[in-house]
Amino acid sequence: MIRNTTLEDSGYYAGGVSSEAAWMEGGVVLIVLDKPSKPKVNGDTDKMIDTYAALTCSSNSTSAPDYYSKLVTLSYTWFVNDTKMDGETDETLRFQVTRAHKYNRYSCEATAMELESYRSDTVQINPLYGPLKIILTPQPKLNRFYTLTIREGQTIGPYQCKVDCNPPCNKTWKYKDSSGSISVISKEGILEQQRLNRNISVLLCEAKWGNDTVIDKSITLDVQCKF
């Protein structure tokens, strides 16, 4: 029985009346088992939605001697939000990225000779996506012609322009006058109270993502003139 061994005790052991005899008679290899190294999860975590992400669990056997540990095959266990993922035992985890993946934390363990490593640190996917729709808060109270009726000189707002983008969209409030010209009111997501005149026909929030993706949400105005 061998007790209190360390990794440094591993190696080839032989004995005899001389060194030549020890080599001739043969010996034994003492293998000292230890947990695999704490894994690190590697991979590109900034991914466009509807593409595939690949996370790799990188670990090594620390059992000794070295020539033995190189022959050890590791198995892997993957976790999402600290829950074991069924059927995921490969070194690399692959999945299609959605918007919901921003809430997931991934980690892994490596196992060799029934010895489990410590759990890796968690990583999160950063799903990249542009805007689908804009929501105005509060919702404008439109009439049956889908316009907002207001008397000239009255105020409108404040309105908040909400849109889900990652990275965040640039939001700009603009207005269109009766000649069709468009002017910028605010480069923030909140439109402060505005006093209206008869020349303003449309208020709109524009959301821009990247170089090409632009959507907007407009409020068509019916400004009642004073007499």
TrEMBL record:
Cellular component per GO, a single term: membrane
Compartments where found: Membrane
PROSITE patterns xrefs: IG_LIKE
Highest taxon of the lineage: Eukaryota
Residues in Ig-like domain copies: 36-126
Keywords for this protein: Disulfide bond, Glycoprotein, Immunoglobulin domain, Membrane
Topology class, membrane: Single-pass type I membrane protein
PANTHER family: NEPHRIN
Name used for this protein in its record: Ig-like domain-containing protein
Organism: Magallana gigas
